[in-house]
Amino acid sequence: MESHKRPPVGPEEAFGRAFILPAKRARFIQFLANPRRRQEVLDRLGHGLPVIPELAREVPGPQDFPLELEKLLRGLGAGDGCHVIAYCLKADGKALPLREALNLVCMSEHGAILCCVPGRLAYYKPESPAPGILLELRPVT
Fold it and tell me: Burial code of 22-39, b = ≥16 C-beta within 10 A, e = fewer?
């Protein structure tokens, strides 16, 4: 019997499925995947992201810096790399080492998302001076 498996989901779609409000999810995923519409999503990153509130928590001020964020994210399961979704950064749409990505987005004034564990752990940095947001989908035990 032939298996009807879905193709693997990329980090951007996994992020959208896990963290974006259901009413906004399909459009968010479709726009990110479409080169002509992607910029519309990126333009809005600095002004708030329609995330599921129960999965989001503000990063405390002292931890909202690259080295402390790296410790926090690694403690929650992040590995050495992450996928970047970012306004005004050449790293948009690319995989980067976690430390390098954190340095880039923390130094930028613009909005960005780091997908650390696809569909499970991400860091959202709104436009400065707003605090960063940790997005975590905890496994059900």
Answer: eeebeebbebbeeeeebe
- With residue 137 as reference, give the H or E element that holds it: none
User: Measured between alpha carbons, how far is 91 from 84 in angstroms, rounded to an integer?
Assistant: 6
Tell me how long the chain is.
141
Is the separation of the CB atoms in 98 and 70 below 8 Å?
A: yes
Domain boundary assignment for the chain:
11-136
Both structure tokens of 12? 């951007």
pLDDT averaged per 10 residues in sequence order, the chain, 141 residues: 63 97 96 93 89 96 92 97 94 96 93 96 91 87 58
pLDDT of residue 34: 94
